[in-house]
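Record Methyltransferase domain-containing protein, 261 aa.
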Amino acid sequence: MNNNDISLRYRDGVSYDRYQSQRSKVGRTTTQNQDADFYSHLADGLGKNLSVLLAGGGTGRIAKPLIEHGHRPTILDNSLDMLDQARKKFPVLELIQADIRSFDLERNFELIVAHFDLLNHLLTLEDVESCFHCFRNHLASNGRFAFDVVNPNLGFFLSCLDRGKMFDSAYHDPYGNGSIVVTQIRDYDYSRQVLKLRKHYRYIDLDKEIIEDIEFRCYGPQELIALLKYNGFDVEQLYGDFQRGNFSSDSKKIIVVCQKK
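=>
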């Protein structure tokens, strides 16, 4: 896939790590590290020395605790720049550049993880079914497929009504271009179930701004259960947070653990 098809924020692993780290510090991303702990403990419950496929694994944030717990993660990502950053952190880790909708590794994994809202990037039914087909083909017979997505509850929709520019993050550019302030404008397309974000990256010292449009497909819990069922999976657990709390309408996340039928 051409690099231009990859979202701006995923083209540079160094900047991505800096951006996400700062978002976590200012409370814009509250689940980082919680999700890493959740998936590493999920692997522990399935056995020792597990083969784990991290779909959309990026720069390897989720890989670290899995390695520390004695498992064998493989990172699959579509962005070579994200994988380059992962290579700097984990020189011996297996890294694979591929699209989650169309890959064939000719082997199975005991756990497949699609973390940090990865599936929200799949905008069409064809995309989702192609992705699930690949995951099912690469899942061991007694393995688990686990993922998390945003829960589009009432609070989520109310936040979409505020279409003014909202603060997202601020960080220092890792390449010496000074401070970057990130703001965003949200809108929601109900006909497509797509959240539309317009992100503004303002380089304060350079008086320069880059604008990027990003789309996220929102999936409801019952919709996900149906999609999984008709694509060969049975839902084993449905959680509302990374502490394994029960899922409810107020949950900010939908966290699913499933098996092959």
